[in-house]
Amino acid sequence: MNKSDNEIETNLLMQAIYDKYGYDLTNYSPSFIHRKLDDRLKSLKLKHISDLIPLAIHNQSVTYQLIMDMSITVTEMFR
């Protein structure tokens, strides 16, 4: 199986968040995850998803924001 760099980096980030904090974000659709990660990369002025991995491991507030980015609020369910 030949995965893209983004898929590999996303899998590594999701695994790091799960291993460190116990949050399993892998059940979201890949397009949803990538859209949310792209938004977070822009806000942090980062180029690659892999740049988020050390931040997620060492900076709990960055991880919390990522989790909040991926959390679907009740109002979003009714749009």
- Sheet-strand content, in percent, reads under 5%
- Structural class by sheet pairing and helices: mainly alpha
Task: Report the span from N to C terminus.
Answer: 36 Å
* Major sheet size, sense and barrel closure: none
- The parts where pLDDT drops under 50 for at least 5 residues are none
Q: What report would you give on this structure?
A:
The protein has 79 residues and is mostly helical. It is 68% helix and 0% strand. It has five helices and no strands. Helix 3 packs across helix 4. The longest helix has 17 residues, at 5-21. The chain is globular. The model has no long low-confidence stretch (mean pLDDT 89).
List keywords for this structure.
79 residues; mainly alpha; 5 helices
List the helices and strands and how they pair.
Blueprint: H1 5-21, H2 30-44, H3 52-58, H4 60-70, H5 74-77
Give a concise summary.
The protein is built from 5 helices and no strands. It is an all-alpha fold and 79 residues long.
